[in-house]
Amino acid sequence: MDTLHTKYQKLKDYISSFGSIAIAFSGGVDSAFLLDTAVEVLGDKAVAVTASSCSFPKREREEALEFCRARGIRHLIAETDELSIPGFRENPVNRCYICKKDIFRKIIDLAEANGIAAVAEGSNMDDMGDYRPGLQAIQELGVKSPLRHAGLTKEEIRALSHERGLPTWDKPSFACLATRFVYGETIDEKKLAMVDKAEQFLQDLGFRQMRVRIHGNLARIEVLPADIPLLASPNMSVQISARLKELGFSYITLDLTGYRTGSMNETL
């Protein structure tokens, strides 16, 4: 814990050095912890900025709004439209770079218009091991990554969030809905809505950490390995299959490896 709190102090010192800061806030574990820390350090000189788009589920937006509302944190909304970004719909392997570059430019413009000195995002040390072209865009734009600067891992962020009483400390990991698409498959509003509604349905059934990956008209469901027997049980599988077919999927499959981040990158 001494090492953990040393990292936490390093984080606070780093945030303090900017004087004012805008946190790119999705409402997830990492950005919630970063925002909470920034507010502790800088008070009303720390603001949240959430990018609102079709790849950001409505439930996540509402949770982000409520987090700030409950704590009296100033919350700005950057309206974005990824589907209008040249190259995004085609879903190339550098899609995340294309998207992050556009979204963070908008967040930077919004921060500058409000007299805020720096923009920061919530990637942590565990994000360094996967294919993350979005991190390149962040670096090119000069966006700060305080959690990585402090050397904090996901597990450590959850531990500190729990210690601070944040409701997000055990929240399942989340990524934008575009990550559910196999590279090269066109992303459109209809398919994004299919994935969003399918995942909401699974969440309502009690599956907390899961993904619905889309391959054409096939849905590949990932759940935690411990949840595979439940999802594969006759009653549950029939119910899930019927609902996902209603949403537009023709075939529904269960990934026997189970949930893992970045599974679409396994083919690269």
Tell me about the largest β-sheet.
4 strands, parallel
Low-confidence stretches are: none
Dominant shape: globular
Q: How many alpha or pi helices? A: 10
Number of domains: 2
Terminal CA distance reads 38 Å
CATH C-level category of the largest domain: Alpha Beta
Cα radius of gyration in angstroms: 19 Å
Remind me, CATH topology of the largest domain? Rossmann fold
User: Average pLDDT across residues?
Assistant: 94
Please provide the count of β strands.
7
Query: Based on helices, strands and strand pairing, what is the structural class?
Result: alpha/beta
CATH H-level homologous superfamily name of the largest domain: HUPs
Known CATH architecture of the largest domain? 3-Layer(aba) Sandwich
Q: Within the largest sheet, what's the order of strands? A: 3-2-1-4
What is the helix content? 40-55%
Strand coverage percent:
5-15%
Fold and architecture overview:
By secondary structure, the protein is of the alpha/beta class. It folds into two domains: 2-163, Rossmann fold; 177-267, Alpha-Beta Plaits (2-Layer Sandwich), CATH 3.30.70.2210. The protein has helices spanning 2-16, 29-42, 58-71, 95-113, 133-141, 146-149, 154-163, 189-204, 228-232, 234-247, and strands spanning 21-24, 46-52, 75-79, 118-120, 210-215, 218-223, 251-254. The strands form two sheets. The protein has a four-stranded parallel β-sheet with strand order 3-2-1-4, sandwiched between helices. Strand 5 (210-215) and strand 6 (218-223) form a beta hairpin. Helix 1 (2-16) crosses helix 2 (29-42), helix 4 runs parallel beside helix 5 (133-141) and helix 8 (189-204) packs antiparallel against helix 10. The longest helix has 19 residues, at 95-113. It is globular and about 55 Å long. The protein starts with a helix and ends in a 14-residue tail after the last strand.
